[in-house]
Fold each of these.
Amino acid sequence: MTQFLLLYLLFLKATLSSFSGMTALPILREELVVTQRLTDRQLNTAVVVGRLTPGPKGSYIVSVGQMLDGWRGALAAWLALVTPALLVLPLLHWLGKHAKSPGPKRALEAVMLGSAGLSLTAVVPLAQDAIDGPVPVLLIAAAALIFVRAKVETIWLIVAGAAVMLGVKMLN
Amino acid sequence: MYLADLARVMLRAGTLTFGGGNATSASIRRQMVDERGWLSGADFTLAFTLSRITPGTNLFACCSAVGYLVRGWTGALLCLLIASVPSSIVTTLLTLAMDRILRWPPATHLMHGAIAISVGLSLGGLWVLASPYLRQAPLLRGIVILTAGFALATWLSPIWVLAACAALGYLWPSEASPE
């Protein structure tokens, strides 16, 4: 129980001090890799798992939890991921009342656009990792276009992209 | 609208949408605003933006906020659980299998393709979320704020970038905006 609580608090510290997907990574690295509870390779594998699964990329923390203490660790990490989410409700309750006035409404729209810009900064390194020739570029463009234009379940795009890449590598 | 309908929509968005938080948020917007009309665009914007200034995983905060706006506290807890539990189970199972998967030579190529698609989905999700404001709000404002967000993020922490964008939006001269 103490181990579970300690893990939960460690993950909570990381999630509470981050405001977007991967910003908890340096904290986890310092707490786990530097103290030799996890290797850099394991942490990288967890990040890859987070990118390959549905939901937020930040769910790599659940993978880290699993590596540290099996299902119990995964549970502690999941709890730490969902706990801060409820903080949005008091914000919604109090700020929601003023959201329809012109000034706050423009501020909210600006935050929406600003977060798009912010998210682009997170996508760029992922794209750099993925692009090693023309095929990934085509896959990225096709996936973005299909997502915007058509209502296809994204799981099928993932399957198709994986198959195309395997096919291309085998042909080469 | 029944809780079961809300649960179904959230399960579909949370479990079948790959590409990270932006793609999933875009999928939730499509389902709840465009297709079912459970929320107005302005309500979704409120939920999404407040989730961005909430510490932790933005997507889970967004799901809680959307659930709260649709069905109060019950909706918030239901959406949070449904958005997070299945994807966390998938993450745990994939972690368990990862060592074995990585020993299989074609796995690297498969993952490479999947990650490229995931990047594309993330970009597509960003477009779905931002385009209503880029299209309907005056273009200049959209471009200025988007660029400011992108540029500032390279040296400021996300929360300060968003605060700067909010101040810019608040102070910008009043004009017609979507919804």
Note: Chain A touches chain B through 100 residues (CB under 8 Å).
Amino acid sequence: MKKIATILSLFLVLYFWSVSPILAQSKVIERAITNGVEAKTIVMLLLLPLLATLVSVMHYILGVSGYGIFVPTMIAVALSATGIAGGLILFGAILMISILSNLILKRLKLHFWPVRALGLVFISVGVFGLMVISTGLKMVDISNISIFPVLFMILLAEEFTRTQLVKSKKEAIKLTLGTLGLAILGAVLMGWQGVAEVVLRYPEAIIVVTVVINLMVGNYTGIRLTEIKRFRKAIRKK
Amino acid sequence: MFNLKQYRQFLTKNERNKVYLRKNSSRGRMVADSKYKTKKSLMKVGVGVPKLLARFQRWDEVENYAWEKLEGNFVVKPVSGYGGEGIIIVRRRGKWAGEWHKMDGFLVNVGDLRHHCQEILMGKYSLHGNPDSVLLEERIKIHPMFLNLTKWGTPDVRVIIFNKVPVMAMLRLPTEKSGGKANLQQGAVGLGVDMATGITTFGIEGKGKEVEKIYDFGKKRLIKVNGIKIPQWREILETAIRCQGAIKGLGFWGVDIVLDKEKGPEVLEVNARPGLSIQICNKAGLRRRMEKVEDVTVRSSDHAISLSKYLFGEKFAEKVELKEKAKTIQSLEIIRVKIPKGFVPLLEKSPTIRQGKHRVVEVRAKVDTGAFRSSIDRNLAIKLGLLQPERVLYFRHYKSSLGEHKDRPVVGVTFWLKGLKVITAVNVADREKLRTKFLLGRKDLEGFLISAKKI
């Protein structure tokens, strides 16, 4: 299985390397841009699998992980849309509101989903309030963000409360910090001008890199970096 | 200093997920993931499980159940919960009807329980939030040996089984932090267990903090984590192996076994995705152990236990076995009888010697399996200070082998036979004319083999 993957990835690399001069300075992308597709959208779209790959590498080889693979990816996109500082403030606010609202709602002993819906009421009002305040203060501008980053942040806050309820607070904090770390890394990567240029110039290279890395990571059965620390205590001293 | 080769013995998360979990078929996983199905399949082959009181699949079943009639000794759990989440353990009835004390000391009432059941039904504790059902079962009676090791819940033994062979085990002790649950994830303490003897080795708390001492609630002080012997170890292993026959399609899995005071080992749960922290509290790698039994065709339960014992036993296992081997005694033995504190023995011939911190006297004793209780000569008893009025436990009517009827005093005696301490009650008889002044009855001969060799 491992061999097949290696051979396949080598083959793919060779194939694209020989074909890439033809695809380089990609005419398709140029045409798309002249036809009115936004360059930023193309970059985001092509970077999405690379972001997910980054998350999977971090998980399987380093052992750092967040809530699954899509939540960190989505938060990365959200952060790159709002700006990292603004996004973190937004998330902090949403998290605070949802924790506080949960504390209040827990006492009412309602069904599970009505509690969530009521929590959303608090969050919506809170985010609206935050927008109003931020326009007044003119510090970090989050008044003109679109609804999607807000939705992603709510999703993350929701994961946090769920994990905290079902598992433990420690686990929830760990996973949320992991998600935010991965997302910040992803957002930095997306905001990098050099990366955008590479994506636009060699879109096929990005795809090849993603495929090869994932085939390799997908077959990795070795130890994760964090596990070395974990198992250090399990080694008997002679 | 840093040597990556040492880590090769461990089963890593990546390898578990990619290589070993694939040895469990989807059917086996399905049974293992549902506590109800597990219980059903295990009952079929006669493996002990906690008694099922009720199972709720719909809301109205919860509503209509006669909660008030429950004795204060039950557990509410989600059928497809994992990592011990969503389990309420009730210890005893509260002051009022419909009110109970939980294992963590807090009170619950019928309303709380109903609400909790509802949350389970909604899927709050199941994987991916799917709708779930509720199990209501009897809480087991904790084995007295475990009672001292925890204040909050039921300790259990997790055994990992690969290719039908028990490869590793740990004793899991609930703590205050884990809220009475035995899951390491929740903060319970895990003690590694030697496969050959069932004696604990190392300990961790939660998912990785090493511990060297735990609190003994009986002795009211800290005790070492190593050297605790789990009772009925062989039966526990046998129970674990029998689960294999009940649930088809499992290749690498764990089973949680509790010891009931009366019914012996009972299976709480079968886990098709066992955690890896067990390697830390055993200070041993699962991967190396599993490689050893990978190609073996396991013939029987005994075969599996022998494999486990000889392949994975700790170094101290042989010593323990030697110690536990039944001691052989002759029909005439010298025993050492303890002299009560402060009493000066009235003996001329035999000297007082020391056994540890006690003063003892050597006495010749005759083994008689025909007698139930041991007996001591009246004169000797007086000389050793055993027949002081306050030491007499009670009088009992005896019929001697010669047909005499007599009321004999029964006194408490401590003696050492072949170095083993025996604390017992002995009746005082007239053995004036007999050669041996002490007769060893079968009550005090437990664990000894009697040789019929001529002396």
Note: Chain B touches chain A at residues 4, 6-7, 10, 12-15, 18-19, 83, 85-86, 111, 115, 118-119, 122, 124-125, 185-187, 204, 207-208, 210, 279-280, 282-285 (CB under 8 Å).
Amino acid sequence: MENMPQEFWRWKEYNWHAPDIAWRNAKIITAGVDVGSVSTQAVVMVDGKLFAYANRRTGSSSPDSARRAMDCALEETDLALDKIHYVVGTGYGRVNVPFAHKTMTEIACHARGANFLYGASVRTVLDMGGQDCKAIKIDAQGKVVNFLMNDKCAAGTGRGLEVIADLLQVPIEEMGELSLRVEKEPEPVSSTCVVFAKSEALGLLRKGWKKNDVLAAYSRAMAHRVAALLKRIGIEKEFVITGGIAKNSGIVTRLEKELGIVARKPDFDTQIAGAVGAALIAKKMKDER
Amino acid sequence: MSERRYKKLKTAPQLKKLLEQHYLAAKYFHLGKPIAWVTSGAPVEIVRALDIFPVYPENYGALCGARGASAAMCQVAEARVYSPDLCAYARSSVGMMSDAKHAPLGGLPRPDLLITCGNICGTVLKWYEAAARHYHAPLFILDTPFIHADDGEPTAHAIAYVAAQLEELIAFLEKQTRRKLSKEKLLATAMLSSEAVSLWCDVREFCRARPSPLNAPDLFLNMAPIVTLRGTKECAQFYRALKEEIAERVARQVSALPEEKYRLVWDNIAIWHHLYRFYNHFVDYGACFVTDTYTGGWAMRMNDQGDPIHAFARTYTQVFLNQSLRVRVRDMADLITRFDVDGFVMHSNRSCKPYSVGQYDIRRIVTEQTGKPGLVIEADHSDPRSYDDETIRARIQTFMEGLR
């Protein structure tokens, strides 16, 4: 459809699977499905190893979103859903995952997922998701020790980024890099509210600001807000960021600068951490049964 | 609306009748007694001894919340340019003043006089000033100095300062009512008040039992008489019956919850508009709130025998919201130890700033001291627009997952 306006907020949906894992010999196959407010991930693990995963946009129905993500994860494999022994649902739609045996909160799942993906030395996890941000302190087993969340406000979240991507007509996946290409770091936008930040960004554009500068001002405000959350809980090394916004280098760089600490960089998609945690918790639950 | 999922008290109909009669009498049958609007921390014994009928706008605010009427009342106040950042009790009250026709119970009766007291918050000062202006009624402001001492004891000069104001209050009330305060009647009222407080303390202490005979919403509902009817015969009578019932529950090991697996402490005012729905999230995990810092606010036994004015000055200055952070930490840690709980939940209450400021520090220090984890929930005691069930549920679930 040529006349469709470009959807700048839209990020890539995809799937992945390990080419060399033979699931037929496996002792236990588990899955985690993280139905978030913006995106849904399904992760399948074979004997505790990553076997397949998918990342899809959450639709209006949580059960459909869960099913779609799972189908997508299994698409290029010969594994079928009924061969999976145990499934844990997490995220905002966790109670609406039709094929889940149990549910866990995304906080517990991101903690466990970060522990698996980054290693046992992780103590502070920042999950920057679609509609909220969570600062989580964890122990060496990936158990939650303490956590803090933003409250009743979408500022500093993925949904907020999508709004700004649309407003500035910048593809969401390029926002981070572009925001770093500025001559001089501008002052952050003053408002912490997405809607007001949008009007403020509009005002800056009208004043003749370049897109990159507006992006930088917005990213800085977001980093500042999230830094406050982390400072409240107290940051301990190692520090990692999970969730979609971890992919935005503009925000991550500014956050690191403000906190004076470097986040460990992942070699996988940070958005799957919650579903990975859910699949691992599923394994533990199944083992204990 | 959600149903309660734990054992109902036999005294519940008695409680309901008592409060209904109170509001009916306030509105229609106060028999020539002048009506006083008073704050929850006001020395009501003096008011009663002068045959003045006290009503509690704060309790009315809670009632608006529980009846699902507070959002509409708050909106009326907001339309009159009262900030949404103000306490929802105050906004409900202002809303009721402007639009009594749509308010629960047709609104509170018009006050003949008002008494406000700074021991619970600063909002009540401005709120009562606005009400006094609205009704053209005289207002008495009782100033209670904040207690900075680590042991929670007011200084001698603070007590003397408050006692002197109580004398002024008596003179003010005598002038307004053209009556003379009888010392005998004041003592008798103080005795009744003291008896009820003592019984209420006993009821709360019974919850140290395993399983606990009461869950926090029971405490919230059953505290109404100690606030609104303190110093009356009916109030003492009610608490005698309640104590008897709870003693029996404890003797027979009757649990409030179907199965008590976890014991928790509650901090801050109840979430009136989602009372059952909210606490049911904990019932799902078998978690019982066996005690709280809120309803204990009216469980202070009076000491100074013989001189009621001195005793009132001390007691009403010592209200927990008039105390330093250290005392709040001490009291919380004490509840955690004495009631043998697994953790605590703090309601960061958008409406109640003095109660909520410092909670994060209290949580940190109490956890350091006791090793028990604490959860902070963000909501509002009576404005349902500040309540997000999904976010709250996720936090509760995570917290409970950690306790297991």
Note: Residues 12-403 of chain B form a domain with the Rossmann fold fold (CATH 3.40.50.11900).
Amino acid sequence: MSINWFKYASPATFYPLAGKLIPLFYALAAILTVVGLYISFFVAPTDATQGEAYRIIFIHVPAAWMSMFIYLLMAMWAGLGLVLNTRLSSIMAQALAPTGAMFTFVALITGAFWGKPTWGTWWEWDARMTSELILLFLYIGYMSLTAAIDDVRRADKAGAILALVGAVNVPIIYFSVKWWNTLHQGASVSLTRAPSMAKTMLLGMLIMALAAWMYSIAVALSRARLLMLEREKSTAWAQEVLEQKS
Amino acid sequence: MLTTIIRRDLLLAYRRRSDVLTTLFFFVIVVSLFPLGVGPEMKTLRLIAPGVVWVAALLASMLSLNRLFAADYQDGTLEQMLLAPQPLALIVLGKIVAHWLVSGLPLALMAPVLGMQFDLPPAALGILFLALLLGTPILSLIGAIGAALTLGLRGGGVLLSLLVLPLYIPALIFGAGAVEAYSAGLSPEGHLSLLGALLILTGLAAPWVTAFALRIAME
Amino acid sequence: MLEAAHLTCQRGERSLFTNLSFTLGAGELLQVAGPNGSGKTSLLKLLCGLSPPVAGEIRWQGAPARGEDFRRQLFYLGHQHAVKEELSALENLHISAELAGEPLTDVEALDALARIGLAGREHLPAKVLSQGQKRRVALARLLVSKAPLWILDEPLTALDVAAVDLIQSRLAEHLANQGMVVLTTHQALQVPGVTPCRIELD
């Protein structure tokens, strides 16, 4: 039996389907966040060397993971849109970008809050933090480019090229930043190299990461729905949706 | 074909010499501003020299990128290039080479003179020159992608810098790092080979990506 | 033979034309007419392959009109002159001919410029030429192009009567040699011995 995946890529099918799925993902995100935060704050043991301050990694690490995953995911959707010329893929890429940028920003901020009590400075030019900052620049570039182009088709394709060029560059940038960091003998303490991580810590982090996934999916889907409605406002199905709403 | 395009763009640049000089003067001025901002202490200046020269080269090369396709776009020549029976990537490569000869190579040639202002020893000046010689073509190659993506957009210049500068970072790190490694008593060979590898990689990929982006921009 | 089948073209949200089909055989001239903004230039760009149609297909000699082989047989004169202000008329002609894969000798190039009425101005930079003269620099390629398919966007604007006559007789010659022409023009077109087909866009 073969499933016609392109059927789900058609806006008229996707729009109501996504509408049904969004509340589900939001609910999952909420539940997982509560559970994750409970583990993070009440179950996970106090760290021997860093005390309570380390608990920020339960937000920092999942956010950092997400920021990178989402960039790759975005580049993948964009590339798919470029190759297959499917509208939904390009919309998904653009719907993911702000969420990815948000997680990158969160990772940077929480990194700074963790850095202050741990190293005594808000900002440390260590390889991961620096790469994260550059990743934020890449997100900003992608969003600015797609926003600056009025023609939707050109915006999709130009954005896709930039996302793919960026995705190829991410490992190169990471490698070069690491190289740079060792040359300058910068901070060797890495945020994710938490000493002897307890099992409950890992569990908390994983649950928080899962919550972040659910949240990302929900937000990206609702953004994709809006983008879709905006682009297809002249088509029959969009007219129907708009009439029902008004 | 390649030589036709290079010759044409060089001829055009020669007829508009002032544009070329503007880029070079910008480079000189930005580098000269740093001692004024940081203070004239030679020990500090020697330390920051490679980074300052490289960042200034990045900015100067980026400023000239706007012109890479804009003139051809406005007068319709770009349409003719897209319709030429040769691969567009080859034409693009020609334009990139010409852009580098006009706005990258002069920076590399000028850099040792500026390095002297920062009291770099002669050997470090040589490495600075070599690193820029390898690195500035990378800037032109990556920049061409950005220039093609932002072609004809309002606010294209600022947008271009937003897209291109983060992608310049590896070149900056290896380029400036080569000189710093030498100053720290290490061999700059590793940095220079990585810069060379980066040049080969971008040299192979960037013309195609740029050609693709140009076709999209012209639709 | 140039075939267009069920072409649809959109600019932004607006649909310019839908389901446009025609065939153009050897020795035929197609005039695309219509008011400003009706999609004349867009249609020509579609035919050249500069932009893809939203729907439909364009075929050249039975194969999709794409790729280097198709472009070798195409001469396109765009809305803009593609004339560089800093280069002389002669340099402009040389470079555009080379770009199109039909390089010219100095003698051929000078002869073409003389015929189009730029004798004595071959070495002047294009920026000192008048609008009509710049147009002539671009049109000089028309006198020497051997490509069978010509796609011309407003070739007659900004030209005086003598130049219009020259272009029209050149078109007639090209068609007599089994060439094909697609053009847009606001002026009345009189190509000796040819009845143009017309497409009216609205």
Note: The mean pLDDT of chain C is 88.
